[in-house]
Amino acid sequence: MDFICNLPLFMIIASLFTAALCLLLKRKAAYMVHSFLMVFLIVSDALVLYYTFWNGHFTYKMGEFPAPWGNEIRAGVLECLVLLVFLIVMLCSVAGGYRYLIWEIDESKHNLYCALLNLSAAAVCALVFTNDIFTGYVFLEILTLASCGLMIATEIGRIVLAGVRYMIMNLLGSSLFLLGVVLLYGITGHLLMVPLHDALAVISGDPSMMLTVTFAIGVLTIGLAIKSGLFPFYFWMPDTYGWSTPTTASFMSSVVSKAYIFLLIKVYWRVVGIELMDRMPIHLIMLTLGIAGVILGSVSAIRTNDVNRMVAYSSAAQIGYIFMSMGIGGRAGYIAAIFHLLGHSVTKSLLFLVTPRLEEVSSNSMVFKDLQGSGLRDRASGLFFTICSLSMVGVPVFAGFSSKFLILLAGWERESNAVFSVIIIALAVSTALNALYFLRTVIRIYSHPEGEEGESAPRHKPEYLIPAWVLVAVNIFLGLFPAIATSLLDSGFSMLF
Amino acid sequence: MRDRLRAWYNEELSGMEEFLNTEERPDATRVERKSAVRRWQEQLLANPEMQREIQIRQKRYHTLYRVVAVFSCILFIAVMLYVIAHFPRFGFENPRADVVARRYLDEGLKETGAVNIVAAMILDYRAFDTLGESFVLFTALVCATILLRMGTRDKEGTMCPVNTFNTSLDNILNGVGFFLIPCILVFGVYIVLNGHLSPGGGFSGGTILGSALIILSAACGFKTTDRIFTYKRLNILSFAALGFYSLSKGFVFFVGANGMHNPIPKGIPGAILSGGLILPLNIAVGLVVACTMYGFYSLFERGRIGHA
Does some domain include residue A42? Predict the structure, then answer.
């Protein structure tokens, strides 16, 4: 085995070790350790991506016991590519929101905040690499708890309230996921994905067990859907994202909820298998809920009068897109889902970083009226906001356009007129709604204020500008050359078996 | 339609502006501004007309909520019962689902050197899950500390916990604690150290150790525990335990996956020094659990650990 195959293990262990180490450090040292960790993670993940691209996927025993007895992790092109985007977004969101972290978090608690960041990095790595559904559950728990801690770190009343709600919804989701895992273990006796898949293929031949299997997978799906904020369960979202500090908001909206979705996709493809999925009604339910989420999330975003909450509600709509595209089914649908997941993670994280800057030059108000002309006072942030908005709406050149186009193509390949027409209508309506509320904000921030000129922007530091440009570059790259990403994703999906 | 669009664009329905202008300084920070919005909403809700409408809506919502809740619970229970009926019977062998469990029982002692198969399973076969699980506890401790520990901000303010009920003056508690706490501590240490030989291990033993500390601080006052447990020492202890845990397990995973020889001796099964890494790992887990238990209690009771 090549030495590079050890890197996923080193990534997880290093994040866990540095999380414990952060307890002993002061603020600056803790952020230093966190940044070094993130750079290490990104570099090693890029190396593993390169390795798997040429040599194919590999599984890695955690300990001396092989597959059905011991734990395992697994790396392939798909996992490495998704993780690479997640880690870049995470580093950028910490760097871009650093200014607000210093203001909003108590001086004595920065090291704890860094510890939580490192823990969530470990959890994200483990969730993406896992080859064992129970390992998935354990790290899902770490991610839930850590993100709750990141949220309440600002310690204002309303965010604690939002944190409690987030906690309750997420624990409900975790316990449903655990119930699904337990049911699967009860009927098959396996937890690792490959033996579990083989056992399920045998069991599902028995028609009397079909309901049990469907119920287990359904419960697992609902659990992860609650955690990622699919349509009927998105009401924890606006407060959570709208009130926490920008770093937390961008990290949670673009990495945490997406990591749950990625785990779900991995369970579908590696545990259930796509033939068995087609025999269950789960895809249809996901399609319906996804479309409902797309429309209703946008409607809620239009009705709110607070920029932060608007951006948060639009997250709910985008999660709807991802589930809708998964609900189309087939490899094309899932590729479109992951493409949208990546594009949205890059866009939404930047939106959450930029919005507070615009508020800052409008005397810290988040009401639309006060934002008038803020794009003129803070040119850079205004530009970033416009780019992200255009990407969200789905204007060509940006990632949003490519992903919507891919979703459309996936619907076309399905060769079912009903599904295709429903998808076309949903995409058209939601694009119009997106344009309505995002472009209103863009027009608002670029129109001249009526009264006196507000205060001009402070000089931006490179720690904000560099991450923002990186995110914009990834966004435009995904938008201009979607074929590169989709061919990588395609080879990743063929490695999933 | 056009007028309504214009009103929507101009936010004319909002009375928040005036409130914020009277309430807040112009240089208010983002957080202060946010809490002002909250106060504005509360003021709006205090309006009698608003309250009446809210009551009506709440009533409708509650009826709907109850109906949906009862319906979904009944549905869930029914499906669960059906699913359970198709399960293998409890206590009987199920050849299809027993492959892994059989192997643990048959080969566990030989492969790991631990008499207690549960310890062998969680700390050797599926050690990665347990590594994550002990970090779950650590995450919970960090979250509780962030939320409850008084920071530099709170010290300036008036927030100060008041001890309404001082148990340390109670003679009975003091006396019973004097005899009981050493026994509980010894019992906890026994459970931790014998985790690979008999039922128990780091998680259960650590809980007992932690409860001994909690009883000590309840019976004799925080003064006694503060002499040993300061915030800094607790952090160092957690770091030492978790750092050792993650690094040693990382080493074992590395050695195992690369097919190298594992240099850690398994020992004679049944002896106290056996089972490879299981004993030291149990000690580390026990320490983390004990710290977490005591930390939770101290944070919830008075918002700090040790003197600060």
Answer: no
Between B13, B87, B152, which is nearest A107 by CB?
B152
Chain A residues in contact with B35 by the CB 8 A cut-off are 156-158
ipTM of model: 0.91
Quick one: which H or E segment has residue A75? Answer: strand A71-75
Report the C-alpha gap between A125 and A247 in whole angstroms. 19
- How far does the CA of residue A481 sit from the closest CA of chain B (Å)? 36
Closest chain B CA to residue A146: B139
Choosing among B6, B24, B30, B61, which should be mutated to test the A contact, i.e. which has the most A CBs within 10 A? B30
Does some domain include residue A320?
A: yes
Q: How far is A368 from chain B (nearest CA, A)?
A: 7
Q: Is B246–A16 a contact, with Cβ atoms under 8 angstroms apart?
A: yes
Q: How far is CA B20 from the centre of its chain?
A: 39
Task: Give the alpha-carbon dihedral of A182, A194, A57, A404, to 10 degrees.
Answer: -60
* Residues in chain B closer than 8 A to A212 (CB atoms): 83, 86-87
pTM of the model: 0.91
Assigned domain for A463 exists: yes
CA distances from B69 to A9, A288, B61 (A): 44, 22, 12
Q: For A366-461, where are the alpha helices, taking DSSP H only?
A: 374-377, 379-393, 399-413, 417-446
How far apart are the two ends of chain A, measured CA to CA in Å? Answer: 20
The parent domain of residue A442 ranges over 282-497
Using DSSP, state whether B28 is helix, strand or coil.
coil
Contact A132 B129 (CB under 8 A): yes
Give the list of residues 6+ apart from residue B244 with CB closer than 8 angstroms, or none. Answer: B280, B284
Q: Do B257 and A1 touch (CB under 8 A)?
A: yes
- Could you read off the pLDDT of B236-267 as tens digits, one per residue? 999 999 999 999 999 999 998 888 887 877 77
CB contact under 8 A, A71 and B246: no
| pLDDT tens-digit map of A415-429 | 778 888 989 999 999
A150, A43 in Cβ contact below 8 A?
Answer: no
Contacts of A63 in chain B (CB under 8 A): 124-125, 127-128, 252-253, 256-257
Q: Based on the structure, what is the number of domains in chain A?
A: 1
What is the DSSP track for B88-150? PPTTS--TTT-HHHHHHHHHHHHHH--SSHHHHIIIIITHHHHHHHHHHHHHHHHHHHHHHS-
Cβ(A298)–Cβ(A317) below 8 Å: yes
